[in-house]
Amino acid sequence: MPIPYLLTALLYLFVAIFVAADASLVSLNLASAFPALRWVRAHFITLGIVSQVIFGLLPVLVASLAKKSKPAFRWDIWLTLNAGFVALVAGFAGVNHPMIFAGGTLIFIAATLLFMQLWNARGGNAPASLKFYIAGVFYLFVGIIVGTGLWLNWSEALYIKVPLEVHIHANSWGFMSLVFAGLFVDFIPMITGRPLGVKNAVAYIYWGMTLGAFGLVLGPWLGGSLPPTVTGLILHLSATILLIVLAGRALKASGHLSTAGGWHLLASYAWILLPVLVAPLILTHIIAGGPVESIAPQPLIYGWILQFGVALIPYIARRFFLKQETPQLGGSWLSLAGIVLGSVLVWVSIFLVDMRGVLYGIGFALYALAMIPPVKELFEIVRDGFKKIENF
Predict the structure, then answer these.
(1) Which residues of 204-230 are buried (b: 16+ CB within 10 A; e: fewer)?
(2) What is the pLDDT of residue 155?
Protein backbone atom coordinates (compact mmCIF):
# COMPACT_ATOMS: atom_id res chain seq x y z
CA MET A 1 0.00 0.00 0.00
CA PRO A 2 1.56 3.34 -1.05
CA ILE A 3 2.93 5.43 1.81
CA PRO A 4 1.02 8.69 0.99
CA TYR A 5 -2.33 6.89 1.23
CA LEU A 6 -1.31 5.19 4.47
CA LEU A 7 -0.26 8.50 6.04
CA THR A 8 -3.44 10.32 5.01
CA ALA A 9 -5.57 7.42 6.30
CA LEU A 10 -3.78 7.67 9.66
CA LEU A 11 -4.24 11.45 9.69
CA TYR A 12 -7.96 11.26 8.95
CA LEU A 13 -8.47 8.48 11.50
CA PHE A 14 -6.82 10.67 14.13
CA VAL A 15 -9.05 13.63 13.23
CA ALA A 16 -12.11 11.34 13.18
CA ILE A 17 -11.64 10.73 16.92
CA PHE A 18 -12.18 14.44 17.61
CA VAL A 19 -15.07 14.64 15.16
CA ALA A 20 -16.85 11.75 16.94
CA ALA A 21 -16.08 13.30 20.33
CA ASP A 22 -17.54 16.60 19.10
CA ALA A 23 -20.71 14.79 17.99
CA SER A 24 -20.98 13.34 21.50
CA LEU A 25 -20.59 16.75 23.14
CA VAL A 26 -23.15 18.32 20.79
CA SER A 27 -25.69 15.56 21.49
CA LEU A 28 -25.20 15.98 25.24
CA ASN A 29 -25.66 19.77 24.84
CA LEU A 30 -22.11 20.43 26.01
CA ALA A 31 -21.05 22.12 22.75
CA SER A 32 -22.66 23.91 19.81
CA ALA A 33 -23.10 22.28 16.42
CA PHE A 34 -22.00 23.79 13.13
CA PRO A 35 -23.85 23.28 9.82
CA ALA A 36 -23.69 19.84 8.17
CA LEU A 37 -21.86 18.21 11.10
CA ARG A 38 -23.16 14.71 10.31
CA TRP A 39 -21.97 15.00 6.71
CA VAL A 40 -18.48 15.88 7.92
CA ARG A 41 -18.47 12.90 10.31
CA ALA A 42 -19.63 10.49 7.64
CA HIS A 43 -17.11 11.58 5.04
CA PHE A 44 -14.16 11.45 7.44
CA ILE A 45 -14.83 7.70 7.65
CA THR A 46 -15.75 7.01 4.02
CA LEU A 47 -13.60 9.37 1.94
CA GLY A 48 -11.16 10.26 4.68
CA ILE A 49 -10.11 6.79 5.89
CA VAL A 50 -11.53 3.83 3.98
CA SER A 51 -11.37 5.33 0.48
CA GLN A 52 -7.71 6.22 1.04
CA VAL A 53 -7.01 2.53 1.48
CA ILE A 54 -9.23 1.49 -1.42
CA PHE A 55 -7.74 3.98 -3.89
CA GLY A 56 -4.18 3.21 -2.79
CA LEU A 57 -4.51 -0.56 -2.48
CA LEU A 58 -6.62 -1.80 -5.39
CA PRO A 59 -4.20 -1.15 -8.31
CA VAL A 60 -1.30 -2.67 -6.33
CA LEU A 61 -3.38 -5.63 -5.12
CA VAL A 62 -4.81 -6.47 -8.55
CA ALA A 63 -1.36 -6.29 -10.17
CA SER A 64 0.11 -8.50 -7.44
CA LEU A 65 -2.60 -11.15 -7.78
CA ALA A 66 -2.34 -11.05 -11.58
CA LYS A 67 1.45 -11.50 -11.23
CA LYS A 68 2.13 -8.24 -13.04
CA SER A 69 4.68 -5.57 -12.20
CA LYS A 70 3.73 -3.11 -9.48
CA PRO A 71 2.09 -0.03 -11.03
CA ALA A 72 3.76 3.35 -10.58
CA PHE A 73 2.30 5.52 -7.85
CA ARG A 74 -0.29 7.92 -9.27
CA TRP A 75 0.19 11.29 -7.61
CA ASP A 76 -2.61 12.70 -9.77
CA ILE A 77 -5.15 10.31 -8.21
CA TRP A 78 -3.92 10.88 -4.67
CA LEU A 79 -3.91 14.66 -5.11
CA THR A 80 -7.34 14.98 -6.71
CA LEU A 81 -8.91 12.62 -4.15
CA ASN A 82 -7.50 14.47 -1.15
CA ALA A 83 -7.91 17.97 -2.55
CA GLY A 84 -11.51 17.05 -3.32
CA PHE A 85 -12.04 15.70 0.18
CA VAL A 86 -10.63 18.85 1.80
CA ALA A 87 -12.77 21.07 -0.46
CA LEU A 88 -15.84 18.98 0.30
CA VAL A 89 -15.37 19.19 4.08
CA ALA A 90 -14.73 22.93 3.84
CA GLY A 91 -17.85 23.31 1.72
CA PHE A 92 -19.96 21.32 4.20
CA ALA A 93 -18.69 23.38 7.16
CA GLY A 94 -19.83 26.65 5.60
CA VAL A 95 -22.53 25.25 3.29
CA ASN A 96 -20.50 26.77 0.46
CA HIS A 97 -22.00 25.50 -2.80
CA PRO A 98 -19.09 26.33 -5.15
CA MET A 99 -16.66 24.61 -2.76
CA ILE A 100 -18.90 21.53 -2.56
CA PHE A 101 -19.10 21.44 -6.37
CA ALA A 102 -15.31 21.71 -6.65
CA GLY A 103 -14.83 18.93 -4.08
CA GLY A 104 -17.31 16.62 -5.77
CA THR A 105 -15.75 17.27 -9.18
CA LEU A 106 -12.22 16.50 -7.97
CA ILE A 107 -13.32 13.28 -6.28
CA PHE A 108 -15.17 12.28 -9.45
CA ILE A 109 -11.96 12.83 -11.45
CA ALA A 110 -9.98 10.70 -8.97
CA ALA A 111 -12.60 7.93 -9.19
CA THR A 112 -12.49 8.08 -13.01
CA LEU A 113 -8.70 7.70 -13.03
CA LEU A 114 -8.94 4.75 -10.63
CA PHE A 115 -11.69 3.18 -12.77
CA MET A 116 -9.45 3.45 -15.85
CA GLN A 117 -6.59 1.77 -13.97
CA LEU A 118 -8.81 -1.12 -12.94
CA TRP A 119 -10.47 -1.41 -16.34
CA ASN A 120 -7.09 -1.70 -18.05
CA ALA A 121 -6.12 -4.54 -15.69
CA ARG A 122 -8.78 -6.87 -17.15
CA GLY A 123 -7.86 -10.05 -18.98
CA GLY A 124 -5.04 -12.49 -18.55
CA ASN A 125 -4.59 -13.56 -14.94
CA ALA A 126 -6.81 -10.84 -13.48
CA PRO A 127 -8.27 -11.97 -10.13
CA ALA A 128 -11.95 -12.80 -9.69
CA SER A 129 -12.23 -9.82 -7.36
CA LEU A 130 -11.55 -7.32 -10.15
CA LYS A 131 -15.16 -7.32 -11.32
CA PHE A 132 -16.27 -6.45 -7.77
CA TYR A 133 -13.92 -3.46 -7.73
CA ILE A 134 -14.94 -2.19 -11.17
CA ALA A 135 -18.66 -2.45 -10.40
CA GLY A 136 -18.08 -0.83 -7.01
CA VAL A 137 -16.36 2.21 -8.51
CA PHE A 138 -19.21 2.52 -11.05
CA TYR A 139 -21.66 2.88 -8.15
CA LEU A 140 -19.28 5.41 -6.60
CA PHE A 141 -19.80 7.56 -9.71
CA VAL A 142 -23.54 7.52 -9.02
CA GLY A 143 -23.00 8.32 -5.35
CA ILE A 144 -20.73 11.28 -6.13
CA ILE A 145 -23.09 12.79 -8.71
CA VAL A 146 -26.19 12.43 -6.54
CA GLY A 147 -24.38 13.47 -3.35
CA THR A 148 -22.98 16.62 -4.91
CA GLY A 149 -26.38 17.34 -6.42
CA LEU A 150 -28.00 17.21 -2.98
CA TRP A 151 -26.45 20.61 -2.28
CA LEU A 152 -26.87 22.04 -5.77
CA ASN A 153 -30.51 21.15 -6.49
CA TRP A 154 -29.75 18.65 -9.27
CA SER A 155 -32.35 16.15 -8.07
CA GLU A 156 -35.23 17.67 -10.00
CA ALA A 157 -33.23 17.78 -13.23
CA LEU A 158 -32.23 14.13 -12.74
CA TYR A 159 -35.81 13.13 -11.79
CA ILE A 160 -34.66 11.74 -8.44
CA LYS A 161 -37.52 11.54 -5.97
CA VAL A 162 -35.56 10.65 -2.79
CA PRO A 163 -31.98 11.81 -3.48
CA LEU A 164 -30.50 11.23 0.00
CA GLU A 165 -31.50 7.56 -0.06
CA VAL A 166 -30.14 7.17 -3.58
CA HIS A 167 -26.80 8.67 -2.46
CA ILE A 168 -26.54 6.43 0.61
CA HIS A 169 -27.63 3.30 -1.23
CA ALA A 170 -25.23 3.86 -4.14
CA ASN A 171 -22.29 4.40 -1.79
CA SER A 172 -23.13 1.77 0.83
CA TRP A 173 -24.93 -1.07 -0.97
CA GLY A 174 -23.11 -0.37 -4.23
CA PHE A 175 -19.57 0.97 -3.79
CA MET A 176 -18.60 -0.20 -0.30
CA SER A 177 -20.48 -3.52 -0.39
CA LEU A 178 -18.94 -4.62 -3.66
CA VAL A 179 -15.41 -3.47 -2.81
CA PHE A 180 -15.57 -5.08 0.65
CA ALA A 181 -16.82 -8.32 -0.91
CA GLY A 182 -13.91 -8.21 -3.37
CA LEU A 183 -11.50 -7.68 -0.46
CA PHE A 184 -13.00 -10.75 1.24
CA VAL A 185 -12.42 -12.75 -1.96
CA ASP A 186 -8.77 -11.64 -2.03
CA PHE A 187 -7.83 -11.52 1.64
CA ILE A 188 -9.68 -14.47 3.21
CA PRO A 189 -7.27 -16.89 1.45
CA MET A 190 -4.30 -14.83 2.67
CA ILE A 191 -5.64 -14.60 6.23
CA THR A 192 -6.99 -18.14 6.64
CA GLY A 193 -5.14 -20.20 4.03
CA ARG A 194 -8.38 -21.31 2.38
CA PRO A 195 -10.54 -19.78 -0.40
CA LEU A 196 -13.64 -17.81 0.46
CA GLY A 197 -15.83 -20.24 -1.47
CA VAL A 198 -16.30 -22.10 -4.71
CA LYS A 199 -16.42 -20.22 -7.98
CA ASN A 200 -20.22 -20.39 -8.27
CA ALA A 201 -20.70 -18.96 -4.78
CA VAL A 202 -18.42 -16.00 -5.52
CA ALA A 203 -20.27 -15.41 -8.80
CA TYR A 204 -23.62 -15.41 -6.99
CA ILE A 205 -22.32 -12.92 -4.41
CA TYR A 206 -21.16 -10.64 -7.23
CA TRP A 207 -24.37 -10.72 -9.23
CA GLY A 208 -26.59 -10.63 -6.14
CA MET A 209 -24.86 -7.52 -4.83
CA THR A 210 -24.52 -5.80 -8.21
CA LEU A 211 -28.15 -6.30 -9.25
CA GLY A 212 -29.39 -5.86 -5.69
CA ALA A 213 -27.65 -2.48 -5.44
CA PHE A 214 -29.26 -1.47 -8.74
CA GLY A 215 -32.71 -2.19 -7.32
CA LEU A 216 -31.92 -0.38 -4.07
CA VAL A 217 -30.77 2.69 -6.02
CA LEU A 218 -33.62 2.61 -8.53
CA GLY A 219 -36.36 2.24 -5.88
CA PRO A 220 -35.80 5.60 -4.11
CA TRP A 221 -34.88 7.19 -7.45
CA LEU A 222 -38.47 6.46 -8.49
CA GLY A 223 -39.91 7.64 -5.18
CA GLY A 224 -39.94 4.39 -3.20
CA SER A 225 -41.14 2.06 -5.95
CA LEU A 226 -41.65 -1.35 -4.32
CA PRO A 227 -40.78 -3.81 -7.15
CA PRO A 228 -37.14 -2.71 -7.65
CA THR A 229 -36.66 -2.03 -3.93
CA VAL A 230 -37.97 -5.41 -2.74
CA THR A 231 -36.11 -7.28 -5.49
CA GLY A 232 -32.93 -5.39 -4.61
CA LEU A 233 -33.36 -6.14 -0.91
CA ILE A 234 -33.78 -9.88 -1.52
CA LEU A 235 -30.82 -10.14 -3.90
CA HIS A 236 -28.46 -8.03 -1.80
CA LEU A 237 -29.47 -9.60 1.51
CA SER A 238 -29.05 -13.17 0.26
CA ALA A 239 -25.65 -12.38 -1.29
CA THR A 240 -24.47 -10.63 1.88
CA ILE A 241 -25.57 -13.50 4.13
CA LEU A 242 -23.75 -15.98 1.89
CA LEU A 243 -20.63 -13.82 2.05
CA ILE A 244 -20.76 -13.69 5.87
CA VAL A 245 -21.35 -17.44 6.20
CA LEU A 246 -18.42 -18.30 3.92
CA ALA A 247 -16.10 -15.80 5.58
CA GLY A 248 -17.20 -16.95 9.05
CA ARG A 249 -16.46 -20.58 8.23
CA ALA A 250 -12.99 -19.76 6.96
CA LEU A 251 -12.19 -17.52 9.95
CA LYS A 252 -13.44 -20.13 12.43
CA ALA A 253 -11.56 -23.00 10.80
CA SER A 254 -8.32 -21.00 10.89
CA GLY A 255 -8.74 -19.95 14.53
CA HIS A 256 -9.21 -16.25 13.79
CA LEU A 257 -12.46 -16.06 15.75
CA SER A 258 -10.36 -16.27 18.90
CA THR A 259 -9.08 -12.77 18.07
CA ALA A 260 -10.76 -9.38 18.13
CA GLY A 261 -9.82 -8.81 14.48
CA GLY A 262 -11.80 -11.80 13.24
CA TRP A 263 -14.85 -10.69 15.20
CA HIS A 264 -14.46 -7.12 13.92
CA LEU A 265 -14.84 -8.42 10.36
CA LEU A 266 -17.96 -10.47 11.10
CA ALA A 267 -19.59 -8.12 13.64
CA SER A 268 -19.30 -5.23 11.21
CA TYR A 269 -21.89 -6.83 8.94
CA ALA A 270 -24.60 -6.70 11.61
CA TRP A 271 -24.85 -2.98 10.93
CA ILE A 272 -25.44 -3.27 7.21
CA LEU A 273 -27.90 -6.12 7.65
CA LEU A 274 -29.96 -4.30 10.28
CA PRO A 275 -31.14 -1.45 7.98
CA VAL A 276 -32.00 -4.03 5.31
CA LEU A 277 -34.05 -6.06 7.81
CA VAL A 278 -35.83 -2.94 9.08
CA ALA A 279 -36.61 -1.70 5.55
CA PRO A 280 -39.73 -3.90 5.09
CA LEU A 281 -41.16 -2.42 8.32
CA ILE A 282 -40.67 1.07 6.89
CA LEU A 283 -42.10 0.15 3.48
CA THR A 284 -45.21 -1.30 5.12
CA HIS A 285 -45.48 1.75 7.46
CA ILE A 286 -45.20 -0.35 10.64
CA ILE A 287 -42.50 2.03 11.90
CA ALA A 288 -41.82 5.61 10.87
CA GLY A 289 -39.11 5.92 8.24
CA GLY A 290 -37.91 9.45 9.04
CA PRO A 291 -35.95 8.79 12.25
CA VAL A 292 -34.45 5.57 10.87
CA GLU A 293 -33.37 7.24 7.63
CA SER A 294 -31.76 10.19 9.45
CA ILE A 295 -29.97 8.27 12.25
CA ALA A 296 -29.31 4.75 10.91
CA PRO A 297 -26.56 5.88 8.46
CA GLN A 298 -24.33 6.74 11.46
CA PRO A 299 -24.05 3.18 12.88
CA LEU A 300 -23.88 1.97 9.29
CA ILE A 301 -20.75 4.07 8.78
CA TYR A 302 -19.15 3.54 12.19
CA GLY A 303 -20.42 0.03 12.92
CA TRP A 304 -19.84 -1.43 9.46
CA ILE A 305 -17.43 0.65 7.36
CA LEU A 306 -15.16 1.83 10.18
CA GLN A 307 -15.18 -1.52 11.97
CA PHE A 308 -14.31 -3.40 8.77
CA GLY A 309 -11.42 -0.97 8.30
CA VAL A 310 -10.25 -1.36 11.91
CA ALA A 311 -9.67 -5.06 11.23
CA LEU A 312 -8.36 -4.98 7.67
CA ILE A 313 -6.36 -1.73 7.32
CA PRO A 314 -3.65 -2.72 9.85
CA TYR A 315 -3.46 -6.15 8.21
CA ILE A 316 -2.98 -4.53 4.79
CA ALA A 317 -0.38 -2.10 6.17
CA ARG A 318 1.57 -4.92 7.81
CA ARG A 319 1.49 -7.03 4.66
CA PHE A 320 2.25 -4.38 2.04
CA PHE A 321 4.21 -1.79 4.07
CA LEU A 322 6.05 -3.86 6.68
CA LYS A 323 6.25 -6.85 4.27
CA GLN A 324 5.12 -9.33 6.94
CA GLU A 325 4.24 -12.76 5.52
CA THR A 326 1.64 -13.66 8.15
CA PRO A 327 0.37 -10.38 9.58
CA GLN A 328 -2.36 -10.22 12.21
CA LEU A 329 -5.71 -8.55 11.79
CA GLY A 330 -6.16 -5.17 13.42
CA GLY A 331 -8.37 -4.16 16.28
CA SER A 332 -8.67 -5.00 19.97
CA TRP A 333 -11.39 -6.19 22.32
CA LEU A 334 -11.74 -2.57 23.48
CA SER A 335 -12.32 -1.25 19.96
CA LEU A 336 -14.73 -4.12 19.28
CA ALA A 337 -16.76 -3.46 22.43
CA GLY A 338 -16.77 0.30 21.86
CA ILE A 339 -17.98 0.15 18.27
CA VAL A 340 -20.61 -2.54 18.91
CA LEU A 341 -22.02 -0.93 22.05
CA GLY A 342 -21.89 2.53 20.48
CA SER A 343 -23.84 1.27 17.45
CA VAL A 344 -26.42 -0.40 19.71
CA LEU A 345 -27.00 2.85 21.61
CA VAL A 346 -27.30 4.94 18.43
CA TRP A 347 -29.84 2.48 17.04
CA VAL A 348 -31.81 2.43 20.30
CA SER A 349 -31.89 6.25 20.22
CA ILE A 350 -34.04 6.01 17.08
CA PHE A 351 -36.93 4.56 19.07
CA LEU A 352 -36.45 6.16 22.54
CA VAL A 353 -37.13 9.73 21.52
CA ASP A 354 -37.00 11.24 25.01
CA MET A 355 -33.53 9.76 25.61
CA ARG A 356 -32.24 10.25 22.09
CA GLY A 357 -29.73 13.00 22.85
CA VAL A 358 -28.15 11.13 25.77
CA LEU A 359 -28.01 7.75 24.01
CA TYR A 360 -26.65 9.33 20.83
CA GLY A 361 -24.05 11.26 22.81
CA ILE A 362 -22.87 8.20 24.76
CA GLY A 363 -22.77 6.18 21.53
CA PHE A 364 -20.45 8.67 19.86
CA ALA A 365 -18.29 8.92 22.97
CA LEU A 366 -17.82 5.14 22.70
CA TYR A 367 -16.97 5.50 18.99
CA ALA A 368 -14.30 8.07 19.87
CA LEU A 369 -12.80 5.80 22.55
CA ALA A 370 -12.94 2.81 20.20
CA MET A 371 -10.83 4.63 17.60
CA ILE A 372 -7.94 5.30 19.98
CA PRO A 373 -6.44 1.74 19.87
CA PRO A 374 -6.58 1.58 16.02
CA VAL A 375 -4.85 4.98 15.77
CA LYS A 376 -2.13 3.77 18.13
CA GLU A 377 -1.80 0.50 16.21
CA LEU A 378 -1.56 2.18 12.80
CA PHE A 379 0.87 4.78 14.14
CA GLU A 380 3.17 2.01 15.40
CA ILE A 381 3.02 0.28 12.01
CA VAL A 382 3.95 3.50 10.22
CA ARG A 383 6.73 4.22 12.74
CA ASP A 384 8.21 0.72 12.37
CA GLY A 385 8.01 0.96 8.58
CA PHE A 386 9.90 4.23 8.46
CA LYS A 387 12.54 2.86 10.85
CA LYS A 388 13.15 0.04 8.39
CA ILE A 389 13.43 2.52 5.53
CA GLU A 390 15.88 4.69 7.51
CA ASN A 391 18.03 1.67 8.39
CA PHE A 392 18.03 0.26 4.86
Answers:
(1) bbbebbbebbbbbbbbbbbeeeeebbb
(2) 86
Quote the pTM value.
Answer: 0.93
For the segment 247-271, the average pLDDT, to the nearest whole number, is: 94
pLDDT one-digit tens code per residue, 318-347:
998 888 988 999 999 999 999 999 999 999
Asked whether the beta carbons of 196 and 239 are under 8 A apart, the reply is no
Q: In the 3-class helix/strand/coil scheme, how is the chain assigned residue by residue? A: CCHHHHHHHHHHHHHHHHHHHHHHHHHCCCCCCCCCHHHHHHHHHHHHHHHHHHHHHHHHHHHHHCCCCCCCCCHHHHHHHHHHHHHHHHHHHHCCHHHHHHHHHHHHHHHHHHHHHHHCCCCCCCCCCHHHHHHHHHHHHHHHHHHHHHHHCCCCCCCCCCHHHHHHHHHHHHHHHHHHHHHHHHHHHHHHCCCCCCHHHHHHHHHHHHHHHHHHHHHHHCCCCHHHHHHHHHHHHHHHHHHHHHHHHHHHHCCHHHCHHHHHHHHCCHHHHHHHHHHHHHHCCCCCHHHHHHHCHHHHHHHHHHHHHHHHHHHHHHHHCCCCCCCCCCCCHHHHHHHHHHHHHHHHHHHCHHHHHHHHHHHHHHHHHHHHHHHHHHHHHHHHHHHHHHHC
Q: What is the pLDDT of residue 353?
A: 85
Core vs surface per residue 165-196: b (16+ CB within 10 A) or e: bbbbbbbbbbbbbbbbbbbbbbbbeebbeeeb
* 78-90 tens-digit pLDDT: 999 999 999 998 8
CA distances from 260 to 50, 255, 268, 338 (A): 19, 11, 12, 12
pLDDT in tens, 27-81: 777 766 555 466 677 788 888 888 999 999 999 999 999 988 889 999 999 999 9
Percent of the chain with pLDDT over 70: 95
Pick 388 or 253 by higher pLDDT. 253
Under 8 Å between Cβ of 2 and 61: no
Q: What is the pLDDT of residue 34?
A: 53
Alpha carbon 263 to its chain centroid, in Å, reads 17
